[in-house]
Specification:
The protein is of the alpha+beta class. β2 and β3 form a beta hairpin. The radius of gyration is 20 Å and the shape is globular. The strands form 3 sheets. A 4-stranded antiparallel beta sheet has the order 1-6-7-5, with helices on one face. Strands 2-3-4-8 form a 4-stranded antiparallel beta sheet. A two-stranded antiparallel sheet has the order 9-10. α1 runs parallel beside α8, α5 crosses α8 and α7 packs across α8. The mean pLDDT is 96. It binds a DNA duplex through α7.
Length: 276
DNA sequence: CACTTGACCTGTCCGC
DNA sequence: TGCGGACAGGTCAAGT
C-alpha cells in the first residue's frame, strides 16, 4: 500500500478506534507476518494502547508498558478494525494476524503478498531497528524546509531524481505513486540526474512533494487495489491523479498523452510535454 | 559508491 | 477456457 498519506490515514483511524483498548489475544497463521517469541507475545497481552504513530511508512502502536507494535504494510498490507457487534468482511483469505481487544473490538492485519509484518519490540529493540534509525526527515514536518531538502537530495548527485525520492534515507514516506505525482507538478522528468537540477527546480520539487501529500491525505490516500483505511474505506486520490496509472490518457494540463517507462526499476509515469 | 537484479509472495491482467 | 509472462503501493541482499 501504502505510502505516507495512506499510513497517515490509517493512524488517524486507529487513534479513533483502538486508543486505550486492552489487548486480549493475538492469533496468526503465517509466521513471517508475526515474527515474535512466545515471551514477547506474552508481554504484550493485557496491555493497553496509549497511542498510534506514523514514521515514514511504518505504523507504531505504543503500549502502556513501554512496548511498541511496529507494523510495516509493504505492498499490500491492511490494518482494519471491526468494532464490537458490527458486521465486517474480515477476516478474509488475506488475514495474517488477528488482535482482539477486551471490549470486543478486533484489529485485522491483512496482507495478500505476505511481505509485511507486525513486530513486538521493547524501546531498545525499536531504537535499534535499522530501517527506522536510517529514515530521513518527515516531508510534512516544520523542520523539512527547502534548504533541508536540497542538502539531503544533493548527497545523491549521481543518481536519478526518481531513485533519490524513493530512497527512504533522503526523506521518509515517498513511494512510487507520490514520486511520479510530485515530479509532474514540479515539471521534472523522473530520469534527470540529481546533479542536473537547478536550485529553482529543487525548490519546486520540495513544494510539490508537500502539496501532493497534503492533497492525498485530504482524499483518504490512494487505493489501487488493496489499500483500505482502518475503517475499511478506500482512498480517492487516484480519481484525480496527474500521471500515476494514466498512461495513454491525456495530460490534465496540456492534453498530451501520458507515457509510462521504467526508471529506477519501477513503472514510471510522466507527461512528455509538461516535464523536462 | 551506485546501479541493477533477484528475492520475498499472491493475484490479476493481457496476449496467444 | 487455459497457460505463460509481466506486473503490482516496498525493502533488503547480493552482484556488477
Amino acid at each position: 500500500m501504502p505510502e505516507l498519506p495512506e499510513i497517515q490515514t490509517i493512524v488517524t483511524g486507529l487513534n479513533r478506534l483502538i486508543l486505550h483498548k486492552t489487548i486480549q489475544s493475538f492469533d496468526w497463521n503465517w509466521a513471517k507476518s508475526f515474527p515474535n517469541s512466545e515471551a514477547a507475545v506474552h508481554s504484550a497481552l493485557n496491555r493497553s494502547v496509549t497511542g498510534v504513530r506514523r514514521r515514514g511508512k511504518a505504523v507504531l502502536l505504543d503500549l502502556d508498558n513501554g512496548l511498541t507494535l511496529l507494523v510495516h504494510l509493504k505492498m499490500t498490507g491492511q490494518l482494519v478494525v471491526q468494532p464490537p457487534d458490527e458486521e465486517s468482511p474480515f477476516p478474509d483469505r488475506s488475514t495474517r494476524v488477528v488482535i482482539r481487544f477486551t471490549d470486543g473490538t478486533t484489529l485485522y492485519f491483512n496482507d495478500q503478498r505476505k511481505f509485511g509484518w507486525v513486530k513486538i519490540l521493547t524501546k531498545e529493540e525499536l531504537a535499534a531497528q535499522p530501517f527506522l534509525a536510517s529514515l530521513g526527515p518527515e516531508p510534512l514536518s516544520r523542520r523539512f524546509t527547502g534548504d533541508h531538502f536540497r542538502e539531503r537530495l544533493l548527497r545523491h548527485r549521481e543518481t536519478t531524481v526518481k531513485a533519490a525520492l524513493l530512497n527512504q534515507t533522503v526523506l521518509a514516506g515517498i513511494g512510487n505513486i507520490y514520486c511520479d505525482e510530485a515530479l509532474f507538478l514540479a515539471g521534472i522528468l523522473p530520469d534527470r540526474k540529481v546533479k542536473s537540477l537547478s536550485d529553482q527546480e529543487i525548490r519546486r520539487l520540495h513544494r510539490s512533494l508537500r502539496k501532493v501529500l497534503r492533497i492525498s491525505i485530504e482524499l483518504g490516500g490512494s487505493t489501487r487495489r488493496n489499500y483500505l483505511s482502518a475503517e475499511g474505506v478506500r482512498g480517492h486520490y487516484l480519481d484525480q491523479a496527474y500521471v500515476y496509472g494514466r498512461d495513454g490518457e491525456p495530460c490534465r494540463t496540456c492534453g498530451t498523452l501520458i507515457r509510462k517507462t521504467r526508471v529506477a526499476g519501477r513503472g514510471t509515469h510522466f507527461c512528455p510535454h509538461c516535464q523536462s
